[in-house]
Specification:
single chain; 156 residues; alpha/beta; 7 strands; 21% strand; globular
Length: 156
Amino acid sequence: MTGHRKHTTGNAKSHPAPGGPGTSGRPGQPKHILIVDEDMLSIVNISQFLLRSGYVLSHATDEDDAINVARNEKPDLIIFAMDGSRGDSFQLERSLQSGSETKPIPILFVLDSDGKPGHGPQILGPRTYLTRPFTQEQLSAAVREQLAHVADLSLT
């Protein structure tokens, strides 16, 4: 698996991420987020925001690796930075939806914008997304929203 790493803060277990118990059968543990982006600098920037909140992070630099990590580690959320130059941006989503063990994992898409400030979480059909550039507050709100939505679904 090229391009995959798992990160956590030294005290992540004593400071669980917002949103309550883990949604993947890990009550009381920090939420696990997989960041998928070809650009390592972008991964680092997003990671810095999320590590401060106590999330456990993994990253992948391509879709195949992301699918493998998702199947093996079953993160609570995937943040997928879409590259507008690709012909089919939603291949990762389709691949994950086809697997029973990965189907329930929500995906927060990150879209490149034309340089205008991000508008916070938006809905693209049934998908939630952020546009770059975005603030730490916008990222945190979108992550909390996605994790809360999954927690709500698991209660029904």
